[in-house]
Amino acid sequence: MATYTPQQLELYLERIRYPGSDTTSRLQCLQQAIAENPLATLAELQRRQLSSIPWGNSALHYSTHRTISIRPACVFEKLVVRRLDGYCMENNTLLYAVLRSLGYQVYPSGGRVCLAASGATYEGVEKLYTGLSHMVLIVLIEGDKYMVDVGFGTNGPTSPLLLKPDFVSVCMAPTEMRLVYDALPEYVDQTQKVWIYQIRYTPDSNWIPMYSFLGTEFLPQDFEVMNFATSQRQTSWFTQTVVCTRMFLDEAETAVQGLYILAGTEVKKRQLGQSEVVETLQRDADRVTALAKWFDMHLRDHEVEGIRGLVSEIK
């Protein structure tokens, strides 16, 4: 697995607005923080990436190639240098290479998205999962394993989750999150268990599964297959519609407070359990402007022209 140079790490830290000082570089500040408290520093890197680098699939619509590469060099160029969005295998590949470069013991694992994550509420939806299509990171710190994910978008985890069943923590207040260790309903052999990431919107509401993951290490070639299916298969919803999300922090920058969601012809802001439409998009040019305004994504002319004639174009 590739790593990044100190110069690249400095650019990444600038991208996620990691603090430095007048006398010490961002990277030196970060290395000192890791030495003092690697778990707290991991959590800060996670929330800063979530609030700086959007989750989305613009490259499948606003480009001439309509492809996605998850090579670490390509991911760095796209997410850090170009300041564009990425989906799970891009955003998590970036963080994976960063963590390896910083000396963390980390490996990627693969998972399946629950159909309930789409917001569907028909009977039995919480029992249905996609094929392998999601990437998470497993980080080992002082003998414990933590799941870290910066690539799920809406309702994704906002801090490292200890691989311990039923430990409840705050996702984005008032929403809570937890992991359970159980068999998927579709398994013939119910003794085979996986980790399932769940959220609930309020403390008295039902837990909703978002995705499951195996916890075992996946190799780059595994994600190559998963990425190709997710980005190129005709039945993949990623190829049908443009979506983009970006979380934002509280004033103290110690917790994720809300997020912006672009989907369909609306941009919504979700904060403290409330959701409001902040912009309605009448035509595709409005969406291009909205991507710049709400997500700091500035597309080039040839990228904007790439969506012409696609089903995802707002006409």
UniProtKB/TrEMBL annotation:
Query: Does the record bear Nucleotide-binding in its keywords?
Result: no
Give start-end ranges for the coiled-coil region(s).
none
* Gene3D superfamilies found in the cross-reference section: 3.30.2140.20
Task: Provide the alphabetized UniProt keywords.
Answer: Acyltransferase, Transferase
Question: Keyword Acyltransferase on this protein?
Answer: yes
Can you name one GO molecular function term for this protein? Answer: acetyltransferase activity
Under InterPro entries, the record lists:
Arylamine_N-AcTrfase, Arylamine_NAT_domain_sf, Papain-like_cys_pep_sf
Question: Of which family is this protein a member?
Answer: Belongs to the arylamine N-acetyltransferase family.
PANTHER family, sorted: ARYLAMINE N-ACETYLTRANSFERASE 4-RELATED, N-HYDROXYARYLAMINE O-ACETYLTRANSFERASE
Name assigned to this protein? Cysteine proteinase
Q: Which organism is it from?
A: Aspergillus ibericus CBS 121593
